[in-house]
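Lab notebook, bench 4. Still working through the backlog of constructs that have no structural model yet. Next entry is a single chain of 74 residues. Request: give me the C-alpha cells for it.
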Amino acid sequence: MNWYNPNPGGSTSPAGLRGNDADAMNGNAVMFDAVAGKILTLGGAPSYQVCLTIDPTLALVLNLTLTLRGLPRP
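Model written out:
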C-alpha cells in the first residue's frame, strides 16, 4: 500500500504491507470509519495477468497522530 500526497508536485511513499500479502493488484481498499482510521481491504492477485486471485479480507486500523491545519475559506 502507498501514501499519496495530493499537494502540487505531490509524491508517493510506501505505507507497508496489506497483512501478509506480498502483492495484491486489482484489490480494493475502502475507508469505512475515518474517525477510527479503519480500512477494509479485499481481493487482488499477485500480478495483473494469468494468475489466481487471493482471498484475504482484512480490516486495518491506522495508528496515526494527525495535525489538522485550518484552510482559508473561499
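Notes after review: The longest strand covers residues 28-33. The chain has no helices and five strands. Flag for follow-up if needed.
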